[in-house]
Specification:
Layout (H helix, E strand, L loop, with lengths): L1 E2 L10 E5 L4 E5 L3 E5 L6 H7 L8 H15 L3 E4 L12 H15 L4 E3 L23 E3 L2 E4 L13 E4 L4 E7 L2 E13 L16 E4 L9 E2 H6 L4 H5 L6 E4 L4 E4 H8 L2
Parallel strand pairs: 4-5, 5-6, 8-9, 9-12, 10-13
Antiparallel strand pairs: 1-2, 2-3, 3-4, 7-8, 10-11, 11-12, 11-14, 14-15
């Protein structure tokens, strides 16, 4: 269990990293279990690309249910890309999504921040479960999927986001020696006026790894070739890597130097 970084916000909180998700338990006045990028239905898209996987929805959902039971949260916060296909629903998603959401809803209240893959999700969720796409504060912490600019009310707080699927890749002389889902933590520093904190204080970012075991993107590529407003605005000088179990790896800059040799 790690305390929230100093100066993040006035709410006292603890962060517990759950490796078998990966998932994050954020404890303040509430116990909020946070999961990003489940991408249910990804297998149908992979088939269209010539990669044949049977549906892993059952196993993925069982892992999520076990994570909920382990954490015993007050709410489950889903940070978007719950489904996979864009720009429409596949037959797999149309068939599976109602049961997936009912299974989760029967265990714990849902708080959903829609992602760029969640087109059509509205037909399966309750309206009071949906939060704005540009994010919201829940129990003193900012949340959003991460594909767009955050709302002004999130700035000056800790913002937890998905979308980027950070994956730590370490290489040795013969190839890839380690491939692990990881968190990327940094402060926000940007000349973009839309992301100006307006004097509200330091904004900290925590990029979550994808819950979907088939999704991952090299952390160094996120840093060197950012593809969202918040990844473009991260302070790479203080960016740090944390494994899914909470193990602190160190600054991204150290990894960058190692990869150059």
């Amino acid at each position: 269990m790690l305390p929230a970084p100093e100066g993040v916000c006035q709410t006292v909180m603890n962060l517990t990293f759950i490796r078998d998700g990966p998932a994050l338990l954020v404890e303040g006045n509430e116990r909020n279990l946070v999961v990003a990028d489940t991408h249910f239905g990804i297998e149908a898209d992979l088939v269209s690309r010539g990669l044949h996987f049977r549906s892993r929805t059952k196993e993925r959902l069982e892992r999520l249910v076990q994570t909920i039971d382990q954490a015993d949260p007050d709410n489950l916060i889903l940070l978007g890309d719950i489904k996979h296909s864009i720009p429409s629903l596949t037959r797999q998603e149309f068939t599976e999504m109602p049961g997936i959401l009912k299974t989760l809803r029967d265990r714990v209240p849902l708080i959903i921040f829609p992602g760029n893959h969640d087109i059509g999700l509205e037909r399966f969720v309750h309206l009071d479960e949906l939060k704005p796409r540009d994010g919201a504060i829940v129990d003193g912490v900012g949340y959003l999927h991460g594909h767009m600019n955050p709302g002004a009310g999130l700035l000056g707080n800790l913002i937890i986001l998905g979308h980027h699927h950070p994956l730590l890749l370490l290489h040795d002389e013969v190839g890839c020696a380690l491939q692990e889902p990881a968190y990327l933590r940094s402060t926000l520093t940007t000349p973009d006026e839309e992301l100006s904190d307006g004097g509200m204080g330091t904004t900290r970012l925590l990029f979550m790894p994808a819950f979907n075991e088939l999704a991952g993107y090299d952390i160094l590529r996120i840093v060197k070739d950012p593809f969202s407003p918040l990844s473009r605005g991260m302070n790479t000088a203080d960016a740090e890597i944390i494994l899914a179990d909470g193990t602190f790896i160190g600054p991204v800059s150290t990894l960058d130097r190692d990869e150059d040799h």
